[in-house]
């Protein structure tokens, strides 16, 4: 998946990361797309299905949902720092920064949306106790869990990331956007949810008038690269090794999608 937006100090090199304890895994059949509108709290959202359980794909609706999405990101990207900093402290900082981007308080971000995949809290996920406890929110009296998330950012660049070159720099009419913080709960990866989230973001990008969509992915993240290639992204450039060493992270690839060639 894509890497997290830089909000904290660089992570220690992978060799220095503490080994994570194995978590409960959920045996989930492959999620399948269903082309119909939802009538649940996620009304109007695209749906995925598994065994009759609907996975709603939509822009976030409530702040509680946004915080649940942030907790999923902390669980995905900052597991190495949870013991030293604390999950809630990390979530608070990420939540504040994401709110600032969405509200337009951060320079350069013209428009930002958080897109989530959510499911009702039920026997579907009861084996994933940690996921449910961290990423749960309540909407209209129903408990739901965020199981996948990403941000669509209409902006010229992302902090500490390579800058896309298309369609050129024109701050009066900017049609460039980036995906960031793309993540799926580890219990539900390789089920098609990541592809569905990216596809949902492409549809929103088209509504915004985006012509050039970018995503950064670590050079050693083969699964993420396969996902974006399947979604139509192609190679544009890569981060110099010295820059990655300076930032204390794996090198990034910059991938580009020509939205003008995407089918309507």
Q: Describe it for me?
A:
- By secondary structure, the protein is α+β, with helices and mostly antiparallel strands.
- It is 29% helix and 28% strand.
- The protein is built from seven helices and ten strands.
- It has helices at 63-77, 79-85, 87-103, 129-134, 193-208, 222-230, 241-247, and strands at 32-34, 46-50, 53-59, 109-120, 136-139, 142-155, 176-184, 212-218, 234-238, 252-258.
- Strands 1, 2, 3, 4, 5, 6, 7, 8, 9 and 10 form a ten-stranded mixed beta sheet that branches.
- A hairpin with a 2-residue loop joins strand 5 (136-139) and strand 6 (142-155).
- Helix 1 crosses helix 3.
- The chain starts with 31 loop residues before the first strand and ends in a 6-residue tail after the last strand.
- This is N-acetyltransferase domain-containing protein.
- Pfam families: Acetyltransf_1 (PF00583).
- Residues 55-260 form the N-acetyltransferase domain.
- The low-confidence runs, each spanning 5 or more residues with pLDDT under 50, are 6-44
What percentage of the residues does DSSP assign to strands (E)? 25-35%
Largest sheet: 10 strands, mixed
Our Rg estimate from Cα atoms comes to 18 Å
Number of distinct beta strands: 10
Report how far apart the termini are: 25 Å
Structural class, by secondary structure, is: alpha+beta
Count of helical regions: 7
| Series of H and E elements | EEEHHHEHEEEHEHEHE
Query: Average pLDDT, to the nearest integer?
Result: 81
Shape: globular
Question: Helical amount among residues, as a percent range?
Answer: 25-40%
Oligomer kind: single chain
């Amino acid at each position: 998946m894509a890497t997290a937006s830089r909000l904290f100090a660089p992570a220690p090199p992978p060799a220095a990361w503490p080994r994570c304890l194995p978590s409960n895994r959920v045996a989930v059949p492959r999620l399948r797309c269903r082309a119909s509108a939802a009538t649940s709290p996620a009304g109007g959202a695209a749906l995925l299905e598994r065994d009759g359980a609907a996975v709603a794909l939509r822009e976030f609706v409530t702040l509680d949902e946004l915080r649940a999405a942030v907790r999923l990101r902390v669980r995905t990207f900052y597991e190495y720092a949870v013991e030293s900093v604390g999950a809630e402290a990390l979530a608070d900082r990420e939540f504040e920064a994401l709110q600032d981007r969405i509200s337009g308080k951060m320079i350069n971000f013209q428009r930002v949306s958080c897109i989530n995949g959510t499911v009702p809290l039920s026997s579907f996920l009861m084996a994933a106790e940690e996921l449910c406890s961290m990423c749960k929110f309540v909407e209209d009296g129903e408990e739901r869990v965020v199981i996948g998330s990403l941000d669509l950012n209409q902006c010229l660049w992302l902090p500490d990331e390579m800058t896309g070159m298309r369609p050129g720099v024109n701050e009066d009419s900017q049609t460039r956007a980036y995906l960031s913080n793309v993540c799926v709960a580890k219990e539900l990866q390789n089920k098609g949810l990541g592809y569905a989230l990216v596809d949902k973001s492409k549809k929103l990008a088209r509504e915004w008038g985006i012509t050039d969509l970018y995503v950064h992915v670590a050079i050693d993240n083969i699964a993420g690269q396969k996902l974006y290639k399947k979604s139509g992204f192609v190679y544009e450039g890569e981060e110099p090794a010295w820059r990655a060493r300076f930032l204390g992270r794996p090198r990034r690839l910059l991938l580009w999608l020509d939205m003008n060639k995407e089918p309507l």
